[in-house]
Amino acid sequence: MRLAFILGETLSGIRRNLSMVVSVVLVTFISLSFVGAAGLLQLQINQMKGYWYDRVEVAVFLCTETSTTATCADGAVTEDQRLAVQSLLESPTAAPYVQSFEYESQERALEIFQEQFKNSAMVETVTADQLPEAFRVALVDPEQYAVVDELVSGMPGVELVSDQRELLEQIFSLMNMASVIAVSIAAVMLICAILLIATTIRLSAFSRRRETGIMRLVGASKTMIQLPFLLEGVIAALLGAVLASLTTWLLAELFIGGWLTEQYPGTGFIGGTDALILVPVLLGIAVLLAAVSSLLTLRRYLTV
């Protein structure tokens, strides 16, 4: 009987303030969608770190005629210098750190360059002798880059030792920045949702002040009087959270796990299954914010 009464009062309040309830649903949906997008970005960053860090390479670039570093004082790398670098990479000293390596000639470097920049006008102006020879080194442990750098970087004929993780860290930093921006926008929208929930509850309490007065006179408990108002805010926020959860899942399943995976098959992407872990987080945020906002509003505007 009490449950039926509480649900009836809740539905009555929703009908009376339908436009405000719809506003709460939409604002909660938009704000939690930004939270979901930020969560997806973090999941993707973690996925890419695990995927790319295992495949990270160290590039040992050899001297060319135009190199200006101290180790290239004699000009382009000689055959003896190249063999010395190769011998070091094959030696027992480097064995604990070097998983494998591959020599890249200037001609091969030009082919890679032309493939990477095939839509750029600079392709026509770059020749093979302008690009350095290199050894592409796969590490046993990518965290041991500094050891390999120390072993090779001071050798004659070596111009530069480059770690791909430096570029990856820049990419991940940009993605983290995008995640922070999404969270910031979500925070502003959540504040709007909280204010809307408070306004909705306040209007609902005002429109039903006569009923609540009668309930107080007949001895209804504080919980019995306040619970319908509390449920109004929670239900509206939950509907918004459900829509945000669905949007987050569709984004992960169709865009990230579908289209992006097809476009970039060599990269590890998250999918809809990974996004499911964000659903309880979004629902929990919605319930918590709605409950706290409703309780504070009821304490101020509904004296029992």
Structure classification: alpha+beta
The main pleated sheet reads as: 4 strands, antiparallel
The global form is: rod-shaped
What order do the helices and strands follow? HHEHEHEHEHHHHH
Mean pLDDT reading: 84
Number of strands: 4
Strand line-up of the largest beta sheet: 2-3-1-4
Rg (C-alpha, Å): 31 Å
Describe the fold and architecture.
The chain has 304 residues and is of the alpha+beta class. The chain has 2 domains: 185 residues, no CATH class; 109 residues, Alpha-Beta Plaits. 67% of the residues lie in helices and 8% in strands. Helix 6 runs parallel beside helix 10. The longest helix has 44 residues.
Key traits:
alpha+beta; Alpha-Beta Plaits; 2 domains; rod-shaped
Task: Describe the SSE topology.
Layout: H1 2-16, H2 18-53, E1 57-62, H3 79-90, E2 98-104, H4 106-116, E3 134-139, H5 145-152, E4 158-163, H6 164-207, H7 209-217, H8 222-263, H9 272-275, H10 279-301
Antiparallel strand pairs: 1-3, 1-4, 2-3
Helix pairs in contact: 1-8, 2-6, 2-8, 2-10, 6-8, 6-10, 8-10
